[in-house]
Design goal:
Layout: H1 2-7, E1 9-13, E2 19-25, E3 31-32, H2 35-42, E4 57-59
Antiparallel strand pairs: 1-2, 1-4, 2-3
Length: 66
């Protein structure tokens, strides 16, 4: 079970390549993370009310690197 959990962790990056948070792969095409992580990844104000349309960079870190 631990291996499956570790395999579902994703690192989320800002446009400059800095890691801004983590998320979890919850299906074949969906990642769950917090709104503030999305805001930081896209350089948005946390007061933004609209759903962002930009793409967010992420990867699956090697086990133990998140």
């Amino acid at each position: 079970m631990t291996g499956q959990l570790e395999a579902s962790i994703v690192r989320i990056f800002a446009k400059n390549g800095a890691i801004v948070g983590t998320g979890f792969l919850v299906s074949g095409r969906c990642i769950l993370t917090c709104a503030h992580v999305v805001d930081r990844a896209l350089g948005l104000s946390q007061a933004a009310q609209e759903m962002p349309a930009a793409e967010i960079r992420f990867d699956f870190p090697p086990s133990g690197a998140a």
